[in-house]
Amino acid sequence: MAEEEPKVENVIIVGSGPAAHTAAIYTARAELKPLLFEGLLAGGVAAGGQLTTTTDVENFPGFPEGVSGMEITERFRAQSVNMGTRILTETISTVDFGSFPYTVTSENGTVAQAKALVIASGATAKRMDIPGAGDNGFWQRGVSACAVCDGAAPFFRGKPLTVIGGGDSAMEEATFLTKYGSKVYIVVRRDVLRASKTMQQRARANPKIEFLYSHAVTEALGSGKMLEQLKIKDLKTEEERIIDCNGLFFAIGHLPNTQFVSHAVDTDDQGYIITKPDSTATNVRGVFACGDCQDKKWRQAITAAGSGCMSALEVEHYLQELEDDQPGTHSSFTMHHNL
Fold it and tell me: Which sequence positions are flagged as catalytic?
């Protein structure tokens, strides 16, 4: 018996964060019956993406008392389902945009086809393997990879904090943290910074910031449930000492979760998907990208949600154009990737 062809979906959404679910909510309300692949530990984090690694979210509208990262992602998902989105907890491993309709295949072997695709697979913050700073240590209990997300938490206020990194993100996050912490150390492995001159000058001019050049954090310490101290090492003298610190923030970059699609759409040298100006459209017509897999500047839940809305509206417009096309033109239509 011949293998049955998969049903052709109007739109498939890949992702599980605010961008993916906003796109799902909008396309579901437009009666496009979206199919969403939320991933199974995609990018090394649970469904919901980077927000699930955040303790309290206080800057997303509609939650005046704040909300935990896990709870808000669960609410995103529940709203998608309530609107009619179908969700598969599987990670997409390959895509084929060479023929129409487009085909995606999950690691579980599920094959699905769609007229349109929204890539909202996010990006994973890079972390360092420091004793005491991992999942079994003080991660989310004083250790974070997003100062903007977590820095205003009550347990950081008036306390010494530390940022690891030497680029623009590290300077920006350290400057942000000075609003809340009593002091902010910037630990840099080298004796120079990679940050732009403007960002360096701004950080150096801040009296609350102290640079620890040619240093490394070697251990996160605490006697209770929260981070209390850091062991740091002078890489030139090999001397180690302990400093008081109640917050450790990694600012060493992000890795966009785009490996599965990088061969099929244009990406930059860091792997972020390139979209057209004022649009979420990629170089492949009918394929859109939103959220942190496309945005390496803002990386906020609210901006991701906004771009998810943009993708959904563009999908609606694209599918209407597709419907208006004359029958039999799909194969040539998809080959003009740069339209």
Answer: 146, 149-150
